[in-house]
Write a structure and sequence with these properties.
By secondary structure, the chain is an alpha/beta fold. It is built from 28 helices and 17 strands. The longest helix is centred in the middle third of the chain and has 28 residues.
């Protein structure tokens, strides 16, 4: 073992080099001591509120409302302050104002006289300042100041720290408000106050996967997240799908388009990301003009039905069939290129018997509802025709060249990962793949027999290579193939099933073939011992550690609980997506973790932004505290707190080095 070098006064040489660097920032005993005092004070403040949301699936209006209301935290603060002094109707209006300040203000200005508006401003400013005081109480003054809008930081800082029992200060406060109104800055100031309240109500936001698909506004959600002050994302299978398409994976481009065609969800592609589908429509109308398309009819909502005539529906089905056949071919190529995926049983195009219109799957013969595939050569079924090759290359270039999509995907990579360990909780979207006997499942896909955390770390790196490695390199190609594995591969950690049965659902009437068997994880997670084993694998132990999951909707209307494993695991996918709400019975779960408790919030369907603004309508939610802290949790007990304690130890070592003479103070 190498012997450590020690200085003449007993300080390790390596540590002394570090302390000398630290001394550049804190050049005197006084400077270091002041920072120690500041950090020690921060450690005893209450832990900030964390907000967990999962599986929003493009439902941007509902997502924005949940984000604005902080799953009821904002309304809770309003009621805490004004429940006995302000009517419910006024509290409803105040909540709506905080959620949608610009829109609500415009509505009020349209029906109130200037004199009434001036009086309303005075009263509302007082109430908003009180709420600001309440939500900022757990933070340092410095942190609150940094959260304030720059143009009003000094004014807001003065207002929230005014002592009203002091007459002079009260007059000072009233004069500030009067001046803001006189200068016609009241509206702008009010909007900034509301934004500050929402920012301070939640310290950190967790998105536990699946921003994309089904709903119409994934791009709007990502724009909102990019403006959030503190957020992390655990990639869901639908996020990885779009990440792969943006990386240039032709298979995942085809998958995105097939999914979007199936659910008539093209707004995000065409309007959101500016990707033209005209090449696909021209190709499909020509090549599939005389084909049977009955199995490829798209799902059109009642609201959209009047916008589609029969010709539109036929073209949509032709486009859906055309891109789906291309997808089946590309998936086959990917499986053959990667024998390590061990998915040869999913090579199905070459198993079709065109004479009797049947296919053999797992040794059993099934009738096919459609074998009218004009671009499939039975002797070479996985090869694209020249026209298909040209089409998919053109569509892939459109995904690669969409500036907005690329910006969003870079954000997903920078803020996202397959899992996150945060303040004693383990967050991931899908599952930790397990065998039936409760062991972590092992994988040898570009790696050597990895399982558990090691495999997820490998998978995270492989996913990044798909986007960041050199275009055309083997590493990038494997990364793109691996993203497809994460999307649809057997027992993938974010898919969590043995197969994806898109082929069977489109072409076989026998619904027994549609089954996608879940990984054993989804049975085993009912056992607290299994949850403890998973937590330990990721370095977490203790009664207050939890797993937070999304992905599999909780069927609340059938009595299923989102709390599993004796309270060790919480599933917060409860049906944000409208398509799932008939199954779940609600419109999603969210989770609030503050210094006092963990609180699970269930939400009813959102009636729409317009109703929320004009009728002061809030989502009907019910909240359940399923774990209360014995003592209020302090920053000292958080991840940030542990980092601060390390800084304090280093600063104390620096002070000791100053006093021993190892390092000389710089009073310049």
């Amino acid at each position: 073992m190498k012997q450590k070098e020690i200085s003449s006064r007993g300080v390790e040489t390596d540590n002394l080099h570090y302390l000398r660097m630290l001394a550049k920032q804190y050049p005197t005993v006084q400077a270091a001591s002041t920072e120690i005092i500041n950090l020690q004070a921060i450690l005893i403040l209450p832990k900030g509120t964390e907000h967990f949301i999962s599986d929003v699936h493009g439902e941007y209006e509902a997502f924005q409302h949940i984000l604005n209301s902080a799953s009821g935290v904002v309304r809770e603060k309003i009621d805490q302050l004004f429940a006995t002094s302000v009517s419910k109707a006024e509290r409803d209006q105040l909540a709506t104002l905080i959620y949608y300040p610009k829109e609500k203000l415009e509505e009020l200005q349209g029906r109130m006289s200037p004199e009434d508006m001036e009086e309303w401003y005075r009263l509302t400013f007082h109430r908003l300042i009180e709420i600001c005081c309440l939500v900022s109480a757990k933070y340092t003054r410095s942190k609150v100041r940094k959260a304030m809008p720059k143009e009003y930081a000094y004014i807001i800082d003065e207002l929230i720290h005014t002592h009203y029992e002091d007459t002079d200060k009260r007059d000072y406060y009233e004069n500030i408000i009067s001046t803001i109104i006189e200068l016609d800055r009241a509206g702008n100031f009010l909007v900034q106050l509301c934004r500050l309240i929402k920012r301070l109500a939640v310290d950190h936001l967790h998105i536990v996967g699946d921003i994309f698909d089904r709903g119409p506004g994934a791009d709007i959600i990502l724009d909102s997240l990019m403006n959030h002050h503190s957020v992390d994302i655990q990639w869901g299978n639908h996020d990885v799908l779009w990440m792969g398409a943006a990386s240039g994976s032709r298979t995942l481009v085809a998958t995105v388009l097939a999914n979007s065609m199936r659910y008539n969800n093209l707004d995000v592609i065409e309007t959101g990301y500016g990707i033209s589908l005209r090449p696909l429509s021209v190709f499909a109308a020509e090549v599939y003009k005389d084909c049977d398309i009955s199995r490829f009819e798209v799902k059109i909502s009642h609201e959209d039905e009047e916008n589609f005539n029969e010709r539109d529906k036929r073209l949509a089905a032709q486009m859906h069939k055309a891109i789906t056949i291309i997808l089946f071919k590309l998936e086959g190529q990917k499986i053959m290129r990667n024998p390590c995926f061990r998915m040869d049983d999913r090579l199905l195009l070459d198993k079709i018997n065109y004479e009797d219109k049947t296919i053999v799957i797992d040794g059993k013969t099934y009738a096919l509802e459609d074998t009218d595939f004009p671009t499939v050569d039975p002797a070479d079924p996985y090869t694209l025709t020249p026209e298909e090759e040209k089409l998919i290359n053109q569509l892939t270039r459109s995904f690669r060249h969409s500036e907005k999509l690329q910006r969003h995907v870079r954000f997903l990579y920078s803020k996202g990962s397959l899992y996150q360990v945060f303040n004693g909780n383990l967050l991931f979207h899908g599952c930790i793949p397990m065998t039936e006997d409760g062991e972590f499942m092992r994988f040898s896909i570009g790696c050597n027999n990895l399982s558990g955390r090691e495999f997820l770390d490998f998978a995270d790196l492989a996913a990044r290579r798909a986007y960041y490695d050199k275009v055309g390199s083997p590493e990038r190609q494997f990364g793109m193939d691996f993203l497809w594995f994460l999307w649809a591969g057997r027992n993938s950690p974010i898919f969590g099933r043995d197969r994806m049965t898109t082929f069977e659902r489109r072409l076989i009437a026998d619904e027994s073939t549609w089954t996608e068997e879940k990984n054993a994880y989804y049975r085993l997670y009912q056992d607290p011992a299994v949850c403890d084993k998973i937590l330990k694998e990721f370095g977490l132990e203790g009664s207050h550690c939890h797993i937070v999951n999304g992905h599999i909707p909780v069927k609340s209307k059938k009595g299923e609980s989102p709390v599993k494993g004796g309270g060790k695991l919480i599933v917060i996918d409860g049906g944000f997506c409208k398509a799932y709400q008939k199954t779940t019975g609600i419109a999603g779960y969210t989770l609030i973790y503050n210094s006092n408790c963990l609180r699970l919030v269930s939400h009813q369907p959102f009636a729409g932004r317009e109703k929320a603004i004009h009728d002061n309508w809030d989502i009907s939610s019910s909240s359940e505290i399923f774990e209360r802290m014995e003592q209020r949790m302090k920053i000292r007990q958080t991840d940030v707190g542990r980092q601060l304690q390390e800084q304090i130890r280093d600063l104390k070592d620096l002070v000791a080095a100053y006093r021993s003479g190892e390092i000389v103070e710089n009073h310049a």
